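Hi R.,

Here are the chain sequences for the assembly we discussed:
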Amino acid sequence: MKINRANLAVFSLSIILGIILAVQIKQKVPQMIPVTLKSIENTKNEINTLNKEIEELKVMIQDKEEKIRIYESIVDGDENIVDLLKDELNKNKAVAGFETVKGPGIIVRMEDNMDENAFGQSLDLDLIHDADVLRIINDLRVAGAEAISINEQRVLSISEIKCGGPVIRINGKSVGVPIYIKAIGDPQLLSAAINAPNTYGYALKTIDQIVIETSVEDEIIIPAYSGMFEFKYAKPVKEGD
Amino acid sequence: MINLFFAAIGILIGIIIGLILPYTYSVSYSLYMSVAILACLDTVFGGVRANLEGKFDLKIFLSGFFGNAILAAILAYIGDKLGVPLYYAAIFTFGGRLFENFASIRRILLSRVKKKKE
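And here is the predicted structure of the full complex:
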């Protein structure tokens, strides 16, 4: 075995190469996954939602701090607890729908297709169904409607919207065409939720030729829920239970 | 044969030393280092080949070893900054040359074995 300079050089540099190799192996390099534009977009959206959530939580913290301040002032005797409770009761009533509310919003008028050249062969498609109303209402809720009524029947979380033959039953009462859906909220958003292309309302209007008209109003009065309601089965879970 | 043997033993000893040594570098450099490793590997194979062919030049070998490694790492780094995977250039060049060198080494060794038999 002849050891000349060449072999020595190859040998020594091989050792260096081996060292670098071993160190690299030790790194446990994570798999490099190519990042696509779509995944970047997704991550961006995720971050945005999280940031929004954080903002909301911050607002909530402020709210709670405000409440604590009020309670402290009650302890000090500055404010009356009865007034506070009354205030809260009214607020809860409004949120629950047991109070007549007013505000800006839209009125949606829906009517059956009375045209002679009705759509298709089936008469069914020219009528307004409970499902149509349900989806319209859902669209309004997505657009941020705060209070909704159908022909003066307040729509609550417990309200049923059900087919009753030629009429629709809401809150146990029959409602016929024309159907007036009132919704309080941002009028532009609400109107877009019905009229914008590719919404359900737009499809009903253009494909099924059902009459849907929206009018933006500065002040809409939405009546309170008229029935009596009490939970029979659902019981609140108290903290510590 | 001996030349290849030197390289193999050297790499083995190096790996053992590297595993024993406690040094590591930041994971963010690992891409550059892996390209540099490829360049080094190519140079060592090239050295073995030149040695077999009797054309070995120490200066070329040394400058190739370090120069190629640094160039490859810098190329990968610049590519990272520009958003263009420039390290592909290093991978294709050195990868291709690696196989070329190995093919040459193989032919030389095989022809020597043949000669011995004759």
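The beta strands of chain A are 101-111, 147-150, 153-154, 161-164, 167-170, 173-175, 179-184, 211-222. Residues 41 and 47 of chain A are 10 Å apart (CA to CA).

Let me know if anything looks off.

Best,
T.
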